[in-house]
Design goal:
Blueprint lengths: L18 H30 L2 H28 L2 H22 L2 H6 L2 H33 L5 H50 L16 H14 L1 H16 L6 H8 L3 H25 L6 H21 L3 H29 L5 H30 L1 H22 L1 H4 L4 H8 L2
Length: 425
């Protein structure tokens, strides 16, 4: 299937044939999703000029994402992963088409702002249901296109392509808003998702590894939650990241900073949205050459502490390039956190439970982005955008200290043993 792989080969996972289209799927869907979210946030704030409306966008996605997450994990563990993701991507394209139609110039001119706003909220809500399945589906599929010995390297590549999407999605969102407007930017998103669908069809259908097909739903969900609770390394990492993202989600308020504080317009908005992802991409790229396996727990805690410091600087800054630099370093710190957290999940999770564990992860971390958007919008409404960001960054620092004390297993985490075991199988 592949040539023998050297011990320290940074391209280890990429040498497996189906991992390449998998990376294209990861990139395309992350690009499309983050670009769409950036465009929607811009349009909603432009329509309302109300920080709370940005928070509501996040809330509309997080409610279905959280409510469906565990059930989605159960379905993913029971079904064939490739075809399930085909359905998810097609559903995303339908939602994007709805947003495209809703922002048609004739509709904008002939219908009230509330009609358009509530329509956007509804479609974002439907997107939350789709997202509940996409996260566990992609997480589970990765373990089926590369062997266990390549998981650590594959995690770095997977996270790197995800961050490429996070970089280019918001950046192109801001640029295309400037070049062609919100309406045609949404049309482009449909095309990008279609390219992801084509890449996904290059991967063959995979076997279902769960030996408990037909297991009662509630028993299945209970087993998944119990596994995460008992595996303290997973629980600690997810808790830490969830709270940090929840209270440190400064990037949600980027439209306010771009329009009202830094006065840099949609071009600057795209750059602000992309700066954290650029930093994360650089860190993740370096991790493929310099693995973060030794003293991973200490590195995880230190990276999120640095993230909090960078967020505080961003909140205090009144200069565009200082704000960009702060967000860039917040992304570098977050990149370390993402690689370590995803490696913990891949190494500690049995194949038959990947969907359920990924769904719990989506509750802790993925959905906390949108819940953090709502929290940031509410705080910005009552405290002002700058103070809201500073408070969030400060709470992140407190969270890191509390987690370091409360989860000693996480603090002592090291991947060296798992790496040696994986290479012997």
């Amino acid at each position: 299937m592949t040539k023998s792989i050297s011990k320290n080969d940074p391209y280890q996972a990429v040498r497996y044939k189906e991992f390449k289209p998998f990376l294209l799927v990861r990139f395309a869907m992350t690009f499309a999703w983050t670009m769409q979210f950036a465009v929607v946030e811009w349009e909603v704030y432009t329509l309302t000029k109300n920080p709370l409306s940005i928070g509501i966008v996040g809330l509309m996605e997080v409610i279905p994402a959280i409510s469906m997450a565990l059930f989605a994990g159960h379905i993913v563990d029971q079904k064939e992963k490739r075809n399930l993701l085909v359905i998810c991507i097609f559903s995303f394209m339908l939602i994007s088409s709805g947003l495209f139609l809703l922002t048609w110039p004739e509709i904008v001119q002939n219908y009230s702002t509330n009609f358009i706003l509530y329509g956007i909220y509804l479609l974002v809500c439907l997107g939350g249901f789709v997202r509940a399945f996409i996260g566990p589906g992609i997480f589970s599929l990765m373990a089926l296109v590369v062997p266990r010995k390549a998981y650590i390297n594959a995690t770095s590549w997977n996270t790197m392509f995800q961050q490429m999407g996070h970089i280019l999605g918001p950046a192109f969102g801001g640029l295309f808003i400037y070049w062609m407007g919100v309406h045609w930017s949404l049309c482009l998103i449909i095309g990008i998702a279609f390219l992801g669908l084509i890449a996904l069809l290059q991967i063959k259908r995979k076997p279902i590894l769960n030996p408990k097909i037909g297991e009662p739903v509630f028993k299945s969900l209970k087993n998944g939650v119990r596994f995460v609770y008992k595996t303290k390394e997973i629980l600690g990492a997810l808790t830490l990241d969830m709270i940090a993202v929840l209270v440190g989600g400064a990037i949600t308020l980027a439209p306010i900073f771009a329009q009202d504080i830094l006065n840099v317009g949609s071009e600057g908005y795209g750059l602000l949205r992309s700066a954290p992802a650029v930093g994360a991409f650089i860190t993740i790229l370096l991790s493929t050459y310099f693995p973060l396996s030794r003293k991973a727990g200490i590195k995880l805690l230190g990276s999120i502490f640095a993230f909090g410091v960078a967020i505080i600087i961003f909140g205090l800054s009144k200069w565009f390039w200082l704000s960009m630099l702060a967000l860039f370093f917040s992304g570098m710190a977050d990149g370390i956190s993402m690689v370590i957290r995803q490696t913990i999940l891949q190494l500690k999770t049995p194949d038959e439970m990947r969907g359920r564990v990924a769904s719990v992860n989506s509750i802790f971390t993925g959905s906390s982005n949108e819940l953090g958007s709502f929290e940031s919008g509410v705080m910005a409404k009552f405290l002002g955008a700058s103070l809201a960001v500073v408070v969030g960054g400060s709470l992140t620092l407190i969270t890191v200290i509390a987690t370091a004390i409360g989860f000693p297993k996480l603090r002592k985490l090291d991947f060296e043993k798992e790496i040696k075991e994986a290479k012997t199988h």
